[in-house]
Structure formats: structure tokens, C-alpha cells
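2024-03-11 09:14:02 DEBUG pipeline.ingest accepted 1 chain
2024-03-11 09:14:02 DEBUG pipeline.ingest length=280
2024-03-11 09:14:03 DEBUG pipeline.predict start
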Amino acid sequence: MSVATRVGRGGWSLFRIAATALIVLPFFFIILLSFRSMTDVYQNPLGFNGNWVPQNYGDAWNGPPGGTGFSHYVANSVVVAVTAVVIAGVVGSLAAYFTSLLSPRTRTRMMALPLIATIIPVIALLIPFFQVFNAWGLLSQPIALGVLYGGLCLPTTILVLHAFFVDFPAELREAPALDGLGHFGTFVRIVLPLSTSPLTAVSLLNVIWVWGETQVALVLLQTPESQTIPVGVLTFQSNFVSNLGPIFAGLTLATIPMAIIYLVFHRVVNRGISMGGVFR
């Protein structure tokens, strides 16, 4: 191995270590501060001596006095995430599959729509969303927010799954047709069971985005009983103004589920995106 090769590999390894540290260290410090008292947060925030206050997690879970407990936020986030992922997965997979059956020219024109939708900032749609939800009486309804999130996840879902379905072996689609199975039956019985990797990958990406989305939820979830974790944690800033420990504890509780999901399924995400992540 040449000196240049060793230097190049060493530089790449140092870059990976530095990038990992930039990602991991903020979470480490959040967890560290979640166990500190208010005095230690200001006087010795990065030290390991001083008073350790595990009760911060109990305070975060129970919520501020007169407020809603963290368990309500978790339940609402689960409802919103499940609703969004199911809608995006079902509608997105159907749209991506049947678009892949079109002619190349028509398919390219159709796929331009979700591609354009991905560049529209969500914050530009907040006022229309609020007006529609307010007119239909859907404000502070987690399920309604989940349906909206499902629609917002559709462009990414369609783009990822479309490339996978385009490369799906044609003989596997044509063989059931000889037995009289239609396009929808072929999709449900043949294509869908063989598409678990990209479908799981894009669903996990949608879950991670929905779990942490704050802008839309802050506007559409106005009652404490309907708020999701990101919005609920924001209320800690005003209610726990004299004690920062529960705020960091709440941030830790909000982060742990997504961190576990990614650590468990990151191989599935990488494999699924590589199988269906190219626009054609």
C-alpha cells in the first residue's frame, strides 16, 4: 500500500470520526444536562461533579403544574405518526407503481409533480392549512394532522418507490396476467410482498420527519391535550423557566425513540434507499 493511499484512508477516517462527533456530542450533552440541577446547569454544565437530579425525568414525564403529562404527547405523536405513515405508504406505493406502468414520456411528466412538490417549503403553506382546518373544525385533532402529514410525505414516498418499481422484473408482473390477475391484484399479491425493503426504508424516513415536525403542529394543535412531543416540549420552556433540567429531560425522552428506531433499522434504510433512490 502506497503512502498516498494510507494518508488518504487516514484522512477519510479522521473525517468520519469528526462527523460522528459533531452528530453524537450534542445528544450526549443534552443527556448530561438532563440529570443536572439548575445551579449546575449554569455553573458547571459540562462537568460530572455536582448534584445529579434524576427527578428531572419524573418532572418532564408528569409535565408542568396544571399542564398535560408527557404521556399525552407520546400518545398523540404515535397517533399522528401511524396515520401519516399508513396513508403515505398506501397511497404513495399505489401511485408509484401505476405510474411506473406508463410510457417513459408520460411517466417523466407525471413524476415531475412530486419532484416539484419537494421544493415547496412547508412554512409557505401554514396559512392555507390553518384556514382549511379552522373552516372544517379540525384544529387540535391529531388524526387530522396525521392525514395532512401523510399528504406531505407523499412526494418523497412516490419518488423513492417509483425508481424501485421501474426496475421491477417485468416477467414477475406478466406471469400473473396470464392467469387472469389484473394490475391491482398483481400489485397486492406479487409486487408488494417483494417491495418490503424500499417501503420500510421510506416509511422510517417518514416516521423520523413526522416525529420531529414542529412548524405545522404548532399552528394546528392549539390545545395542550392534542399536542405532539415537539410542541409539548416547547411549552416546557415557559412553564419550567426556573428549572432547565426537565426541559433537557423532555428533549431526551423525545429523541430516544427515533434514535433506537434508526439504530435498529439503519441497514434497512440504507439498503432500501439504494434500491429505490434514483429518479428515472
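2024-03-11 09:14:41 DEBUG pipeline.report Residues 245-276 form the longest helix (32 residues).
2024-03-11 09:14:41 DEBUG pipeline.predict end
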